[in-house]
Amino acid sequence: MNKTLSLAIAGLGTVGVGVLELLAANRDLLSARCGRSIEVLAVSARDRSRDRGVSVDGYKWFDDPVEMAEESGADIFLELIGGSEGTAREACDAAIAAGAHVVTANKALIAMHGSDIAARAEAANVSLAFEAAVAGGIPVIKALREGLAGNRVTSLHGILNGTCNYILTTMRETGRPFEDVLAEAQTLGYAEADPSFDIDGVDAAHKLAILTSVAFGCKVNFDGVHIEGIRHVAAEDIAYATELGYRIKLLGITERTNTGILQRVYPAMVPVGAPIAAVEGVYNGVVAEGDFVGTTMFEGRGAGAGPTASAVVADVVDIALGRNTPTFGVPTGSLSQTSSQSLNERAGLYYIRLMVQDTTGVFADIATTLRDANISIESAIQRARTDSGFVPVVLTTHETQEGAIQEALSLLNKLESVAETPRMIRIESI
């Protein structure tokens, strides 16, 4: 196996440039590990004249990545464009049709179409690899698919978006409001000009859908993910969480139940002593439960040129060595079509924050409303009257059903004494 392995790289943004830099810096190391050299044959991007800090003069240039996939003759096509539709998908399909392996960092593409693309790659006897699509430089796909291959994974949870984790960490450390910290994250480059995909939980949901497929051997089902973001998390919620012994994290959680698979992304309170609670700043962390291995945790940088390029090139090395593990751990024909479980069936603890009028009988009304919804109060915190004349009341519940909580929130919102829409955050005992 001494034939040079040729690459065609579509997309020369942060990740694409990072791949070029890694390949140049570690050329000898990669050749030694692969038993052959790895060479970039062709590249494609929107603007050839743009200064990217690296030279592209030695590569064949294509304005159209689909044309490059069809005509470059490269052994591996690297899709680093992004987006679930359009050019990215067309280019991957074209590369597979041309007999090239595909390596991608595109979580949206894999979350929306991964099962179909994997089936086409399998039929063409080429690889589809996507380590870089989830958790940046953390080799969590390989760990689940190969390292834990002897285990039945029962559940998985993690911090899958560094932008949200940075915002929530900074809010806790400084007491500043969400909008202020978000603006700072944009200035630092941790958040996009339009941060919706990050702060509304969509990015984390893409990654969770992929992890669910690999962990449970089922078809990727992004539509089955319940998604909530962090826009409604207030500084006072974070302060109360600290007082109660919790930290607030945007979590992706997936678990196999008796009735299907429950996938959800939402801000949650986790015990301060839980391993995932210690993952701070822009870092990602994933915790998996296996029937024989028990609890395993993976932590590292979830984005950025270096970590993501590291994951991309790791996939290239696997292909160079002839490793052809099924894309999602089992052949696509064996992927199950598992039912999605409704979040209403979740049983757990809850945090509720209310702003109420400081009048006699208000707490009794709240307690009665919760009782009528079959919810038992575990703890209550009441503070002094605010400048607005209202009193904050914070409750935590004993274990109850999601459906009961939603009913209670609706009833509480109708009470004349409740001045603002009640705020709820789920508590995860992990």
Radius of gyration: 24 Å
Report the major sheet: 11 strands, mixed
Instruction: Name the shape in a single word.
Output: elongated
Structural class: alpha/beta
Oligomeric organization of the protein chains:
single chain
CATH class annotation of the largest domain: Alpha Beta
The tally of helices reads: 14
Through-space gap between termini: 47 Å
Helix content: 25-40%
Low-confidence stretches: none
Find the CATH topology of the largest domain.
Dihydrodipicolinate Reductase, domain 2
CATH superfamily of the largest domain: Dihydrodipicolinate Reductase, domain 2
Tell me the CATH architecture of the largest domain.
2-Layer Sandwich
What number is the mean pLDDT?
A: 94
Question: What is the tally of beta strands?
Answer: 17
Beta strand %: 25-35%
Integer count of domains: 3
Per-chain topology:
Elements: E1 5-10, H1 14-25, H2 27-34, E2 38-44, E3 60-62, H3 65-71, E4 76-79, H4 87-97, E5 101-104, H5 107-123, E6 128-129, H6 140-147, E7 153-159, H7 162-174, H8 178-188, H9 196-199, H10 202-216, E8 225-227, H11 235-244, E9 246-257, E10 260-271, E11 283-290, E12 294-301, H12 305-320, E13 347-357, H13 362-372, E14 377-382, E15 390-397, E16 400-401, H14 402-413, E17 423-427
Parallel strand pairs: 1-2, 1-4, 2-3, 4-5, 5-6, 8-10, 10-17
Antiparallel strand pairs: 7-9, 7-11, 9-10, 11-12, 13-15, 13-16, 13-17, 14-15
